[in-house]
Structures are given as structure tokens and as C-alpha cells.
Amino acid sequence: MGLLYTKFYMDFDDSDWKQTSNNPIVFQTLKNNVSLEIEDTSHKSYKLNFKEGGKLNMFRVTGKFRLTWNDDDLL
Question: Which of 6, 29, 37, 62 is least surrounded, with the fewest CB atoms within 10 Å of its CB?
Fold first, then answer.
């Protein structure tokens, strides 16, 4: 299970992602090799490449967002 904290809200391209849940917030990829660049709270950048059907969970925490995913959803 992957875990990152970021201070930035992320926009998801409608052609690559769909929101499947509001509580908790879950986004799912619509195609293969969808990349997502994330800057964590310590300003390190990460690039994740998701498989088709991969999911990203987003939880709002005071002043930041907690992002989690299943490592099997990555390429």
C-alpha cells in the first residue's frame, strides 16, 4: 500500500480518471498507463503510473490530503 501526504488539491483529467466514491473520495483510472505527479509535504516529487482500473484514495486531513493506493495498481 502506497501512502503520501500533499498540501495541494489535485485535478484529475476526465478522460483518464473517474470519481467512483465521495466518502471516502476514490478515483479510478479509465485506461492503462495513466501518470500522476505528486509533490508531497516535504516538497519531494513522485510520478506514479497506474494500470487501467487502478484506484487512488484521497482523505482530507487538517491542512493536507492523505493519498493511498494499492501497489498492484501501478505499472
Answer: 62
